[in-house]
Specification:
The chain is mainly β. Helix content is about 15%, strand content about 45%. It folds into two domains: about 5-95, NusG, N-terminal domain (Alpha-Beta Plaits, 2-Layer Sandwich); about 105-150, SH3 type barrels. The strands form five sheets. The protein has a five-stranded antiparallel sheet with strand order 14-13-12-11-15, with no helix packed on it. Strands 2-5-1-6 form a four-stranded antiparallel sheet. A hairpin with a 2-residue loop joins strand 3 (about 30-35) and strand 4 (about 35-40). The longest helix is centred in the middle third of the chain and has 9 residues, at about 80-85. The protein starts with a strand and ends with a strand.
């Protein structure tokens, strides 16, 4: 029975590793466009369809390891690969845009010490870091949280 497995590849060697693997296996290395460049969606990882003899994929040039589930490679369902391929336009995966928060918008904290607190969005600082103002002990306090921990109301 054929299944998809995940191979970890040497850094920045995804393309050459796929060239070797494609001699014997069906491979898939989803790509995205970021800042005008085409990059791997999952850097240092590619998918390979295993029919039999998975160890050949494991010992292919530039393959670091195969993700395992005990003694056998971890198996990905066809639906996962189909879902990723379904987001492709001209061979490039188009990721959904995260909803943007607006300055001054009420937000709720989803996780962490301030879980459930309501605050005011006060801007983004750095990559995936959000500043919000929380009312703590009777005054507004600026708190910096990961973007995934803050949602607009």
């Amino acid at each position: 029975m054929a299944y998809w497995a995940v191979l970890q590849i040497e850094t920045q060697r995804e393309h050459i590793a796929r060239m070797f693997l494609m001699r014997e296996f069906e491979t898939y290395g989803p790509r995205i466009r970021r800042h005008g460049r085409i990059l791997p969606l999952f850097p240092s990882y590619i998918f390979v369809r295993i029919q039999s003899a998975w160890y050949r994929a494991r010992w292919s040039p530039h393959v670091t390891r195969i993700l395992m589930d005990g003694e056998m490679p971890a198996q990905l369902s066809d639906e996962i690969i189909t879902s990723i391929r379904g987001r492709e336009i001209d061979g490039i995966v188009v990721l959904p845009r995260a909803p943007r928060l607006r300055y001054g918008q009420p937000v709720r904290v989803l996780r962490g010490s301030f879980e459930g607190k309501i605050g005011i969005y006060h801007g983004m600082i750095g990559r995936d870091r959000e500043r919000i103002l929380l009312d703590l002990l009777g005054r507004k306090v600026s708190v910096i949280l990961p973007g995934r921990d803050v949602v607009g109301r």
